[in-house]
Structures are given as structure tokens and as C-alpha cells.
Design a protein that fits this description.
This is RNA polymerase-binding transcription factor DksA. This protein is an all-alpha fold. The protein contains 4 helices and no strands. Helix 1 packs antiparallel against helix 2. The longest helix is centred in the middle third of the chain and has 37 residues. The chain is flat and about 65 Å long. The model has no long low-confidence stretch (mean pLDDT about 90).
């Protein structure tokens, strides 16, 4: 497979064939960049948590520090789950299903994919899904 080059500033448009090589390479780079950012932040958090071995004599300071640590770890756990979704999107790029709604098979808008590159549902299908979720949710 020939390597596709993407010039700086390229943004997919509706005027070109959907999920052509340039668009796939654009989203591949976007997803990999996002994943690398998450992994770098996770590494920074790990280093910070290892170096922060402060002994807070004040109970309030200790509680505040523990709360901050718990919030940071919860955020990292959400990002860990996000990397799984990014990996799944990269796999869909490889198998040719990326950019198509899992529910309808129709193309997901480029605008939506650019804003949420891990999207698996078109905007309309996502809205239907959320409405069903609200109806069946236990309140």
C-alpha cells in the first residue's frame, strides 16, 4: 500500500469521496496523537504520584491530598478506557468500517468524526440511543 501524504492544515471535506485514503490517514494521525497525549499524561501522573510522598502532619492537608489523588486516579481510569475506544477506532480504520454508523451503516458526518473521532454512531442514531436510554433508565 502506498504511503499517503497529508499536508499541514488538511481537513477532510464533504467535497471528496468519503473515507478516502487522505481522510483515513488524517483520522489515523488524529487518533494516534490523542492516544499519545493520554499516555504521556498518564506517565506524568505516575511520576507525580511516585514523587509525592509527603507526610502531612495536618489531618485536613492529608485529606485534601488524598482527595486530589483519588480524583486524579479516577480521571486516569476514564482516560485508560478512552484508549481502548481509540484502539477500537484504529482497528475500524484498518478493516474499512471506520466512519460508518454501527446502527444504520450510513456514513457518520465528517464534522462529527472530527469532533469525536471515536464515534461509532451517526448523530441521529446517537440521539435515538440517548432517548431510549432516558426512557429505560431507573430514576
Amino acid at each position: 500500500m502506498a504511503k499517503v501524504t497529508i499536508e499541514d492544515g488538511y481537513v477532510p471535506t464533504e467535497n471528496e469521496p468519503f473515507m478516502n485514503e487522505r481522510q483515513r490517514e488524517y483520522f489515523r494521525r488524529k487518533l494516534l496523537g490523542w492516544k499519545n497525549d493520554i499516555l504521556r499524561e498518564a506517565q506524568d501522573t505516575l511520576v507525580a504520584l511516585q514523587s509525592e510522598n509527603e507526610n502531612h502532619p495536618d489531618l485536613a492537608d492529608r485529606a485534601s491530598s488524598e482527595t486530589d489523588r483519588a480524583i486524579e486516579l479516577r480521571a486516569r481510569d476514564r482516560q485508560r478506557k478512552l484508549t481502548g475506544k481509540i484502539d477500537a477506532a484504529l482497528a475500524r480504520l484498518e478493516d474499512g468500517s471506520y466512519g460508518y454508523c454501527e446502527e444504520t451503516g450510513e456514513p457518520i458526518s465528517l464534522k462529527r468524526l472530527d469532533a469525536r473521532p471515536i464515534a461509532t454512531l451517526s448523530l441521529e442514531a446517537q440521539e435515538r440511543h440517548e432517548r431510549r436510554e432516558r426512557v429505560y433508565r431507573d430514576d
